[in-house]
Design brief:
Shape: rod-shaped
Largest sheet: none
Signal peptide: 1-25
Keywords: Signal
Structural class: mainly alpha
Order of helices and strands: HHHH
InterPro entries: ATG16, Autophagy-rel_prot_16_dom
GO biological process, one term: autophagosome assembly
Domain Autophagy-related protein: 54-225
Length: 259
């Protein structure tokens, strides 16, 4: 490699290192450990925020400083490569030929340089075409794969849309059923409340009837007792009356006997 090519390479390396130096600083993270998980979490959150801030600053710097010079770097690389090729070809031209004719003339050397450069450019273009063809095939295969994925996802989307419609219909049906059952439940609760009220009223009426029946039974028992007492008194009175009547009947017979 010639001195000019070496100098250009050094310049490119220095520029590349200057561009990447902030990234290396960015990737350094403080290794401070904490005994408490909460402190570690706060430190990690702060570090993530700092990293995001630095990344945003580097991205902004690349957009304003690095990206505008990317074309210059590419052109510089191509020119350095052409310079290396010309130096190599020039060294070949400067060497005397094996036939001892003293080398080529200036025009022949220039034509030879142009021819070799054209051959080199042709080789590079052929390689570039081959690489682009390979990339094109890969992109074509990737595109076909993407199309197949899109078709599959479209089918899945259609299927999921149908399932979603069915689920929506089922949900609407369930909501209608739930509303109907809620109304029926409210009606049943109202009917249950009415039945409870009726049962309570029936129990109260039963208690009242039982109390009345007990009172009537008590009164009837009292009437029966009074009737029995009356019958007992009547029987005693009848016996006394019969006894008195027999006595009265016996008195005339005794008087007759005395006569």
């Amino acid at each position: 490699m010639s001195s000019s090519a070496f100098a250009l390479t050094c310049i490119r390396c220095s520029l590349f290192l200057r561009i990447l130096s902030p990234v290396e600083v960015c990737e350094q993270s403080p290794a401070t450990a904490s005994n408490h998980s909460s402190a570690q979490l706060r430190e990690k959150t702060a570090m993530e925020g700092w990293k995001s801030h630095v990344r945003a600053g580097l991205f902004q710097r690349d957009c304003t400083q690095k990206d505008p010079f990317s074309g210059i770097f590419n052109t510089l690389s191509k020119l350095a490569e052409q310079l290396d090729l010309r130096d190599t070809l020039w060294d070949e031209v400067q060497r005397p030929s094996s036939e001892g004719d003293g080398g080529l003339t200036v025009d022949h050397r220039e034509l030879y340089l142009q021819l070799r450069e054209s051959e080199h450019i042709t080789e590079k273009l052929s390689q570039t075409v081959s690489d682009l063809t390979t990339v094109m095939y890969l992109k074509d295969a990737e595109l076909q794969y993407c199309h197949s994925q899109v078709s599959r996802y479209r089918k899945e989307a259609v299927t999921q849309a149908r399932e979603a419609n069915l689920l929506q219909a089922s949900l609407s049906e369930f909501e209608f059923t739930l509303a109907s059952q809620s109304k029926e439940l409210a009606a049943l609760r109202l009917e249950q409340w009415e039945l409870k009220e009726g049962l309570a009223a029936a129990w109260r009426e039963k208690e009242e009837l039982l109390e009345r029946w007990m009172d009537e039974k008590k009164e009837e028992a009292e009437r029966v007792n009074r009737h029995n007492d009356t019958q007992e008194r009547w029987h005693r009175f009848t016996r006394r009356l019969n006894k008195h009547h027999r006595r009265e009947m016996l008195r005339p017979s005794e008087q007759t006997d005395d006569w």
